[in-house]
Amino acid sequence: MTVKNNPLSSIVASGPIPAHLARPVIEETLRNAILDGRLPCGTAIRQEALAQLFGVSRMPVREALRQLEAQSLLQVVQYKGAVVAPLIEDNSLHAYELRLLLEAQALRLSVPLLADEDFEAAEGYIEALEVETDFGKIGTLNRQFHQTLYCKAPNKKLLALIETGLIEEERFLRFNLKQMNLGKLCQDDHRALLHHARARDIEACIAELESHLQRGVKAITHYLDTQKAKQP
């Protein structure tokens, strides 16, 4: 008799979870498992299995899955339900165009309001990135650095949209940073961004951000071309 592999076997749930924490705990646990590859692309995520794993009703499970779908980590597929989304899709390049628009606006709103402690926090993330070798942690630090520069923007909807794009990029970085060979180069970009932010030179910040994101576009393009070349 063939034993079916349980895709959730790599997830450890420490319960019981208080009702008011169920949704964020499930969301964060699944997000981490997707980002670090324990739940690979195409894995079907069953609501009933998750509810049993975490010892909760289906309601917080459904809410968590909706949040992960909004972050482009899950897709709803006919007859399969929620599945882990592809690492990179053909529209990922369009996502980078949108990111530039959103993040440039966040810089305009946030940079004039940043305080010394914000710049120190950003510098700390750069220093951590210089020495970190764990690609998973590098992806997280990269996201946190950018969020620090945008954090004072008063438009919370804007920040939520930006976070979704950064999470999507974080997943790609975790799997492909070594092949991209961008580690030190990214830190040069980050230091230039921080330098312009300290000087309150918003237009220079935006120009540096555009250059920074263009490197991501080149990496995405290379990845997509490589995947197409593997197809029969």
From TrEMBL:
<dbReference type="Pfam" id="PF07729">
    <property type="entry name" value="FCD"/>
</dbReference>
<dbReference type="InterPro" id="IPR036390">
    <property type="entry name" value="WH_DNA-bd_sf"/>
</dbReference>
<keyword id="KW-0804">Transcription</keyword>
<protein>
    <submittedName>
        <fullName>GntR family transcriptional regulator</fullName>
    </submittedName>
</protein>
<dbReference type="Pfam" id="PF00392">
    <property type="entry name" value="GntR"/>
</dbReference>
<keyword id="KW-0805">Transcription regulation</keyword>
<dbReference type="InterPro" id="IPR000524">
    <property type="entry name" value="Tscrpt_reg_HTH_GntR"/>
</dbReference>
<dbReference type="InterPro" id="IPR011711">
    <property type="entry name" value="GntR_C"/>
</dbReference>
<keyword id="KW-0238">DNA-binding</keyword>
<feature type="domain" description="HTH gntR-type">
    <location>
        <begin position="20"/>
        <end position="87"/>
    </location>
</feature>
<dbReference type="InterPro" id="IPR008920">
    <property type="entry name" value="TF_FadR/GntR_C"/>
</dbReference>
<dbReference type="InterPro" id="IPR036388">
    <property type="entry name" value="WH-like_DNA-bd_sf"/>
</dbReference>
